[in-house]
Design goal:
The protein is an alpha+beta fold and 432 residues long. Helices cover 20% and strands 41% of the residues. It contains nine helices and 23 strands. It has a nine-stranded mixed β-sheet with strand order 11-13-9-8-23-21-16-19-18, with no helix packed on it. The protein has a five-stranded antiparallel β-sheet with strand order 2-1-5-4-3. A four-stranded antiparallel β-sheet has the order 14-15-20-17, with no helix packed on it.
Length: 432
């Protein structure tokens, strides 16, 4: 069962897919969640052997209800997809918008779920046969196209797409996470990455995407019998711990040949997600030095080093240096960028617009402390950092990106391709 409730518990829309959920289940949800005296932190609430999975968007509650042991991640993915679909159809999701579009929402709920099982959630496909006015009146030819899209193998792309200029944009977006101690030893680190594509290609093209995955490069090295260790290291592949693909990727080819072959959806989509934990190139190193001068003074020195190639530029660099709660005043000196003490955050924020590779910057903070009666020692929270660099910290590289379209007469060489690498900070911390 799924439902949409207003802020005060009024049911705006509900759809029951199975008969094991009674209509009065909403009363229990209204009393125990919406009107609960204490703040509800968990997104899942169990009441009388019934599980309520809920999201709140402004003043609207979107809820899925079940009495079975279901996959919670799948339910929340479904709720978020439903929310995204409503946004795609009528913009802002509000009480007035839902009341104005309730017929459309019922149509969507009937299409995206069947007996509680998710079916079609792609807005591009749903918009071919559901409009805001209702179901389109279609010719026999259009009806056949719709049927093929709903039941066919390539439900994510319609036929007959044409562009004057065939273009393919590929972004490798990575978030590097690091926890390092003051001596420079890595305590934990991983990179979570995404390969996002924007496809503006005519017809039904097949694309092949290759990267420097370790299994591929190891196999090539065995075939070539390459004994040059320097060349081997230079072309070394990355070890991917786990990865997930968009539904358009032919998994059988990836498992046997390790090639990523797919017919891309039109427009922007996420081709794959991956995670690596080995051989990460950390863009920045923070070297902290904390010196306590008696009980009322403290000096913090922070040296920031960039570890990437000199030709590259790091941007949007921000270093957050925590200070004690008893801080009365701070004097700051930095040889690059701007620094400011934020009393509301109990931290010094140091911002640098741009920084080239293999450079060094330094900040000194002289801190005056209020006298404290407590003997507890300051715990020294870690120094955190935000940044953006134009390369992939995992070492991932796009080896090739090929396009084949046998029906239309354009070749791989005529397709304009753009590849961009962006590395950003995730949780990037150094203990002081």
């Amino acid at each position: 069962s799924s439902g949409i409730n207003a802020e005060y518990g009024e049911i705006l829309i509900s759809r029951i897919y199975r008969d094991d959920i009674a209509r009065n289940a909403v009363d229990a949800f209204r009393v125990n969640v919406i009107h609960a005296r204490s703040q509800i932190r968990s997104p899942v609430t169990n009441i009388a052997r019934t599980s309520f999975f809920h999201l709140k968007k402004s003043n609207i509650w979107i809820t899925a209800v079940t009495r079975q042991n279901v996959n919670a991640a799948m339910v929340f993915e479904m709720l978020h997809k439903t929310l995204a679909l409503m946004t795609s159809y009528f913009g802002k999701v509000s009480e007035e918008a839902i009341k104005s579009n309730f017929v459309l929402i019922y149509e969507l709920l009937d299409e995206i779920l069947d007996f509680g099982y998710p079916q079609k959630t792609d807005s591009g496909i749903l918009k071919t046969f559901i409009t805001q006015q209702g179901i389109k009146t279609t010719s026999a030819e259009e009806q056949t196209k719709i049927t093929n899209q709903v039941t066919g193998q390539i439900g994510w792309r319609r036929e007959g797409i044409k562009y004057r200029r065939n273009e393919l944009f590929l972004d490798v977006l990575e978030n590097v996470n690091l926890l390092m101690n003051a001596q420079g030893k890595v305590l934990s680190a991983h990179v979570s990455g995404r390969v996002v594509m924007r496809s503006y290609l005519s017809g039904m093209p097949e694309c092949k995407f290759g990267m420097n995955d370790k299994i591929i490069t190891d196999n090539k090295d065995k075939d070539n019998n390459n004994n040059d260790m320097i060349a081997k290291k230079k072309n070394a592949g990355i070890a991917i711990d786990d990865c997930t693909f968009h539904q358009c990727v032919k998994l059988s080819k990836f498992e046997t040949e390790r090639s990523i072959s797919f017919i891309p959806p039109d427009g922007e989509f996420e081709l794959m997600r991956y995670r690596t934990t080995k051989d990460i190139s950390f863009p920045f190193r923070i070297i902290p030095l904390v010196r306590e001068i008696g009980k009322t003074k403290m000096e913090i020195k922070v040296v920031l080093k960039s570890n990437y190639r000199p030709a590259l530029l790091g941007q949007k660099i921000e270093v957050k240096i925590p200070t004690p709660v008893t801080t009365a005043g701070v004097n700051l000196f930095c040889n690059k960028g701007r620094s400011k003490y934020k009393s509301s955050d109990n931290a010094v924020v140091w911002r640098i617009k741009r920084m080239a590779g293999l450079k060094e910057a330094q900040l000194t903070a002289e801190i005056e402390l209020l006298p404290s009666t407590e003997n507890r020692k300051w715990q020294r929270p870690p120094i955190s950092m935000n940044f953006e660099v134009p390369y992939a910290p995992s070492g991932l590289k796009v080896r090739y990106l090929k396009v084949f379209e046998p029906k239309l007469n354009y070749s791989d060489h005529e397709t304009v391709k753009w590849v961009r690498y962006i590395g950003r900070s995730g949780l990037y911390e150094t203990r002081s």
